[in-house]
Batch of 2 targets.
Target 1
Amino acid sequence: MKFEVLTIFPEIIECYIKHGVLGKALNKGIVEVKVYNLRDFTSDKHKKVDDYPYGGGAGMVMQIEPFYNAIMHLKADEKPRKLVLLSPQGRKFTQKLAQKFMEESKAMVLICGRYEGIDERVKAFVDEEVSIGDYVLSGGELAALVIIDSVVRLIPGALGDELSAVEDSFMKGFLDYPHYTRPEDFKGMKVPEVLLSGDHKKIALWRKRQALKNTLKNRPDLLKNLSPEDMRILKELC
Ligand SMILES: N#Cc1c(-c2ccc3ccn(Cc4ccc(CN5CCCCC5)cc4)c3c2)n[nH]c1N
């Protein structure tokens, strides 16, 4: 899968993609990330990318021309790609949308604005407008990284452990169970006995109960379409 990122801060993207899961996927050749500086698609000596908003108002707005020139440059190879604009006004990005992007797109262009946003006319050239959550960021770059990371985790072979992506809690519809590792006793804080028992059936049941308990407490909205078994466990918790 190929990601192409349009931004005025390429270093934000370049710094992150070298590490962790993404770094491994890049080294394996499973993923390619190319970052383009929008300032390279300007036509003035000052590489201007923003201007005052028509109609007045606070802040600056990013001009359409650099976005248009960059998008036309990418489209010159006539390969299919999904163009995604990051924006506070976008549709909510979820695990389901990450799965859809992974399944449907061989290449994605992630368009990152800054300032108070970008000229509305850019939207004529994009396929999706996406927001990663109900809070205001300073630009689209962090959102682009969230999308890249969550989509790459879903690509077969990217994690090196097929179970990890499938086991990711949002794939199952509820939150994760608690995790513990050595030492067994840290200043009197002990690992739950069941996890030391070696009884995999008991451990699995304990983990399911804990996951449902966490979900009931922090994200009851996720508790939909539970299996009869999960519903039985949940009723025991109430
Ligand atoms: N994805 C994503 C994002 C973004 C995001 C994405 C892309 C850009 C480009 C520029 N900014 C900064 C900015 C900041 C303030 C305002 C004004 N608005 C007034 C009314 C309410 C909302 C904000 C606009 C744009 C961006 C922010 N924020 N949150 C997400 N989940």
Note: Residues 86-88, 90, 113-117, 131-133, 135-140, 143 surround JEK (CB under 6 Å).
Target 2
Amino acid sequence: MSTTEVVFNSHPFLFAIITRETIQMYAQAIHKLVMDIACKLAQGMGLASFSFEGWPCKFRINKYNFSPKTVNSSGVQIHTDSGFLTILQEDENVGGLEVMDKSGTFVAVEPLPGTLLVNLGDTAKVWSNGRLCNVKHRVVCKEPRTRMSIASFLLGPKEAKVEAPAELVDSSHPRLYVPFFYLDYRNLRISKELQAGEALDFSSSKKMNESRSTEGLSVAGMSNLSMTSDSVLRCTSMCTRAAEYSFHKG
Ligand SMILES: O=C(O)CCC(=O)C(=O)O
Ligand SMILES: [Fe+2]
């Protein structure tokens, strides 16, 4: 049976309170859940045999150093997640997460102990040819208390391009996005400071046709960009990445 290999990158203080075994168990359980949900989404779109095996996952522990001075300011600025799907384990006591609804209004997500929150990212929108929606969200400091959250991400494929499977493309659903490599897309979001899904325009088939450009637009937009940490842009000094773990089936 394969195991989940966990690559650690942790703040030293965490090891005092969380053991390696606990982290490994969490990673295994959340990996299974992430894959189950992704497969069910694919099944729901008639793609029962689509496999997300090998798509990288990671989870991150966020620590928000909220204080009386930071009330009403931004903990994490508006963004979409770049990957396929995210499972959020919110702080059970301290709220602050807000998601944007269809009308563009931010709605607060109140803490609900014992629950997990699932949201979809840019990769899901491209992969589903626009059927699944990426969700804009942010974190605002509501009260002067330290806030912790765990965000687990199913990212995009490493070797293959992000693209809608042929079954989701036909004459009434033309391909909305020119296929691209996930890492190129993440780098583009960072370098252009377009963290709320706008970077998808660089791969939009419609925009490319309008500008009578070809695939070159995505290549020009997405190549030769160096990789940096996307926490640099999204997080304020209030939010630190206390730990990050990458995991995959090995
Ligand atoms: O801390 C939260 O509730 C949200 C974190 C988040 O949106 C992210 O890490 O992408
Ligand atoms: Fe997020």
Note: The pocket of fe (ii) ion (ligand 2) is lined by residues 79, 81, 86, 137 (CB under 6 Å).
